[in-house]
Design goal:
Blueprint (H helix, E strand, L loop, with lengths): L4 H30 L7 H14 L6 H17 L2 H14 L4 E5 L13 E6 L7 E6 L4 E6 H5 L1
Antiparallel strand pairs: 1-2, 2-3, 3-4
């Protein structure tokens, strides 16, 4: 049996409407998870990276900071190698000394990819200089000094 054109279009419109409302619900859930609460503000990133870039004769603009913040926000939830890639990118931008980790005292595994790692951070070479770090349990990037992170 063949449907009439209006019945087909009404059925199709209903399916599209249902799909669109499901997509909107999904976006709102992702928005709350992916929000910039999982990453430092662009201004904080700019203030951290800009002096190091100038010292090395490079430019690091506010647009670069916003781009880095957006990437951090997206990968903070995903975790794994994406987080490592962001920290490596920050390491290069800061002309720092590599990405290092701090293990949990109880050696309990909190993440399939990072295992018993508590925190990943960009080593700035001085415990009192602010750095970019990733809290594995909270799935969140933060800017603090290594000294504050350990405490």
């Amino acid at each position: 049996m063949k449907r009439s054109g209006s019945a087909v279009s009404a059925s199709k419109a209903k399916r599209c409407s249902t799909r669109n409302s499901a997509n909107e619900a999904s976006k709102s859930r992702l928005g709350s998870v992916r929000g910039h609460a999982r990453a430092p503000s662009a201004l904080a990133i700019y203030k951290l990276v800009s002096p190091h870039a100038k010292h090395d004769g490079r430019t690091f603009t506010m647009a670069d900071a916003e781009s880095l913040r957006d990437v951090m926000s997206e990968v903070a939830v995903v975790g794994g190698s994406s987080v490592s890639a962001v920290l490596e990118r920050a390491n290069r931008a800061l002309s720092a000394h590599g990405v290092e980790s701090i293990l949990r005292d109880d050696r309990e595994w909190v993440d399939r990819y990072f295992g018993d790692t508590r925190l990943l951070y960009v080593n700035m070479g001085d415990a009192y200089i602010d750095t970019i770090a990733y809290d594995v349990a909270k799935k969140k990037f933060i800017i603090r000094s290594w000294n504050e992170l350990v405490d």
